[in-house]
Amino acid sequence: MILKGLKYEWSYDPPDPDLVEGIRKAAGASDVLASVLASRGVSSPSEAARFLRTDPDSLPDPHLLPDADEVVRRVRAALEGGEKIAVHGHDDADGVTATVIMAEALLQLGASVICYIPDRRSEGHGMNRAELDRLAASGVTLVVTVDSCVSDRDAIGYGNVLGIDTIVTDHHEIPPELPPAVAIVNPKLPESRFPYRYMAGVGVALRVTDLLFDELGGEFGPAAEPKPWYGGTWRDEALGLAAIGSIADKVPLTFDNRTIVVAGTARIPLTERPGLLALLEEARLSGQSLDADDVRSSLGPAFGRVSDGKGGNYALDLLLTSDLDDARERAQQLAQGRTRWRDAASKAWKDTQAAIKADPLAKERPVLIIESTVPVEVMGYVTSRLADETGLPTVLLSDLNGDAMAEARGPTGFNLVDAFHSMSELFLGYGGHPRAAGFTMKRTNVAEFRERMLEFVDENPPTPQPRSVDAELQFDGATPEIARELGLLEPFGQRNPPAALVARGVTLDDYEAARASGVVFTSTERPGREPADAVYRLRNDGETTFANILDVIVPEGPGGQDVAVSE
Predict the structure, then answer these.
(1) What is the tally of helices (H) and strands (E) in the chain?
(2) pLDDT tens figures, 451-501
C-alpha cells in the first residue's frame, strides 16, 4: 500500500504473519524486529539468522562462486609453472583494498606477483592495450582482475593474443556479452550458485582468496619475504581491508557485507599493518574502537584516487609497505592529496555550473549531458552532485587523450547500465552499477551517444520510488528494549537504513503520553489533535530512547486539517 505523507510517499506492505512468527522464534526476536527483517526481503527463519550473524566463519562456501574450479585450476598451473601473475585493480578504496588482498594471498602461495592500478587520468576505465603490452613485455602470463573488467571484452581478447590469460573477479553489472577470460567470478552472473549477489569488489576478492587457500594452501607457499601480518593473522587483516572497501563502495550492508563490515571493523584497531597504523594515526583514531561511520568518514576517503602520475598508486604502496616510517610519509601524501582534491572539486563544480549556464536547455532535457574540462579525479563527485541537484540521469564528459571519458549517475528508478548495454558498440570500455557507471569512447561517437541516450530516457523514464516503511509500532510500544533490539541491525547503510516504523491513528495525546514515559522526540513534527499515522525512527543510546518523526500521513477525506503541527 502507498501512504501519502506531508513530505513523502511511503510504501508499506505488511509481511506474511507466518513468516514473521517463524523469524521471531528462530532469531529470538520481537515481532517488530522480525517484521523489519521480513519487510526487507528476508524470506525464511534461517535467512534471518544469517542476516543477524556476524561471525566471518559463517560466510557461505567460496566453492559456490562462479568458475571456482577454473580459478583453482589456472592458479595451480601458474604456481606449478612459476608464472608471473599481475593483479589488475581499480583506483578507489574498493579496488585498492581488493588489489592488496589478492596480491598478498598469491604471494603467500609462493607466486611471483606484480600489481597494476590504471591511472584513470591518462588510461581511462578498465584494462587497456598499452597496459597489456607492458605486462606481456615483463613476462606476465596471467592477470587476475579485482573490482573490474567484467565488461572488458576487447582488452581481454587482446591479452589472449599476447599469451596472457585473465581471471576476472568483479561485482559490477553483467554485460550482454562476457569477455573471453579463463574464469569470471562475479556473484551477479545468472548461473551463480553463490547465495549473495551484492558484495563489493573487495568482498569478492576476499572470498576468492578463501577459495585459493582452502584448495592450494597445503600445496604451495610461503612467500619469499613473509610479512608480519601473513600466516595466522592474515585473514583478520584482510577482513579489516574488506570492511574499508565495502563501506567506501556503498554496497548494501546486508548479509555477507554486514558480516564483513562488522567483523572487519572490529579488527582494524588491532592491525599490525604499518599502512593502516599510519592511517589511524593521521585520522586520530589510534587505539580506539571503530564503527562503520568512523570508517566511512575518516578511513575510506583516505583512499581517494591519488596517484603519482607515473603508474604508481599512493594508497596501494601505503598498504603494501612493511616500514612504519615509510607508511607515515605516504599517509601524509594521501592527506595532502585529499586537500588538493577538495580544491579541485570546488573549482570543477564552478566550471561545470558555468558550462550548464552556457546551455540554457540543459536542465530541460530528460537527461543531463554536460561536457566540461573537469579533472578526472573529481568527475564522480561533480556528476553525483549534479544528479542529486537535478534528479536527472546525468553524464559528465571530459577529454582523455583525444577520446571522451564519462562518469554517469542516475536517480532511483533508472538503470544506467541498461542504457549503456543498449548502445555498447559505441564504447571503448564501460561498466558500473545501475545508478553509478562510467565509460570511454571515441570522440566521434559523442553526438550519436547524445541522441541515443535521449531516446533511451524518453522510452525508459526514471520511475520515482516511494520510501519504505518496515513495521508497525504504536508509540506506547516504543520501549528501551525495542529500541535497543532494533540497534542489532547496525551498521546502517545502503539497503539497511534504521528501521522506519508507522504508528497508526496517533494523536497529540499519544505523543505526550510517550514523552511522559521517557521517549525523547528529536523532530519538530508531531501529531495534531485528529488521529493520523506517524512514520518514525527509534534508537536508544544506552540510557535514553529517542524517536524521530519522519512524516505524518495525511488522512483521506474531510477532517484531516489538524493532523500535524510543527513545534
Answers:
(1) 20, 20
(2) 999 999 999 999 888 999 999 999 999 999 999 999 999 999 989 999 999
Say if residue 400 is in the same domain as residue 481.
no
Q: What SS3 state is found at 464?
A: coil
CA distance 227 to 563: 64
Distance CA 473, CA 453 (A): 45
pLDDT at 304: 63
Instruction: Please identify which residue in the block is written with the cell numbers 587457500.
Output: 213
For residue 310, pLDDT over 60 is answered with no
Q: Total structural domains in the chain? A: 3
For residue 94, give Cα distances in angstroms to 46, 148, 225, 285, 355.
30, 10, 26, 21, 31
C-alpha–C-alpha distance, residues 380 and 408, integer Å: 8
Query: Alpha helix (H) ranges present in 404-556?
Result: 416-421, 446-459, 480-486, 508-516
Q: Are 319 and 299 in contact (CB under 8 A)?
A: no
Q: Which of 286, 309, 312, 311 is nearest to 299 (CA)?
A: 286
pTM (two decimals): 0.90
* Contacting residues for 405 by C-beta, under 8 A, at least 6 apart: 120, 124, 125, 376, 379, 397, 398, 399, 438, 439, 440
Which residue is it, cell 588510461? 123
* Rounded Cα–Cα distance for residues 491 and 293 (Å): 8
Non-local (6+) Cβ contacts of 217 within 8 A are 109
Q: pLDDT (tens digit, 9 = 90+) per residue, 133-183?
A: 999 999 999 999 999 999 999 999 999 999 999 999 999 999 999 999 999
In this structure, are 157 and 231 located in the same domain?
Answer: yes
**Domain finish residue from 435, 459, 483:** 459
Report the candidate in 228, 229, 239, 233 with the shortest Cα–Cα distance to residue 97. 239
Determine, yes or no, domain membership for 33. Answer: no
Domain assignment of residue 434, given as a range: 359-459
Q: Give pLDDT, residue 39.
A: 95
Same domain assignment for residues 77 and 186: yes
